[in-house]
Amino acid sequence: MHNTILHKAHTRGDANHGWLHSRHTFSFANYHDPERIHFGALRVLNDDIVDAGMGFGTHPHENMEIISIPLEGDLEHKDSMGNISVISQGDIQVMSAGTGIYHSEYNKNKDKPVKFLQIWVFPNKQNVPPRYNQITLNPDDRFNTLQQVLSPNPADAGVWIHQQAWFHLGKFAKGLILDYVLKMKGNGIYAFVLHGDITISGQRLNSRDGLGIYGIDSISIHADSDSELLLMEVPMSI
After folding, report:
1. I need a surface site. Which of 68, 178, 201, 228 has the fewest CB within 10 A?
2. 16-57, pLDDT tens digit by residue?
3. In this structure, CATH architecture of domain 139-235
4. Taking the domains of the chain in order of start, what are their residue ranges?
5. What is the pTM of this model?
6. What is the distance between the alpha carbons of residues 161 and 8, in angstroms, rounded to a whole number?
């Protein structure tokens, strides 16, 4: 018996700070919904748009795995470990906050917004040394397939985190049908549609909809239109 949790795009928390417009799939900052705290180890899924030249000032994190996926524009990162970098569409960034880290994030461009996903995953190890990494992926490697972008294993494709989690990105032509088999028994899968229309295990989803499924070994994916998808496999217990 599998269980599903549907989060339609319009039901997400909506925080508009002028310079920042953020949609929260799970409770975050001033948005609190006791029914939407986390999905297993997946704690935060923020869909952020930052105005030209604006950004988040230096702030702390600890004991959280933080993943940023740029969708459009350029995001400049600085942190207390001395890293200064820019991430753009095609990149993926990870920070293991561990014992504590400070960082800031700014839109590097003065003439256009930056759009990115900020994702937090509960770690399976506490108080690890802080760590930063970013990589550039080839978007062609996700056309009509699932490109692994994150795993628990530093030797595998993508970035790695302190958790038994796997993330994949896919860019599908209309009509594509494929299956995803979970990597670890007992994990759940949270699917987030970046754009387009996709049916997952019988549930039709549209742009920016989210679907959590657990109690299953695999899911079926059908692209009802040209579409893009982020799949996040995470443990259900934390």
Report:
1. 178
2. 999 999 999 999 999 999 999 999 999 999 999 999 999 999
3. Sandwich (2.60)
4. 13-136, 139-235
5. 0.97
6. 28
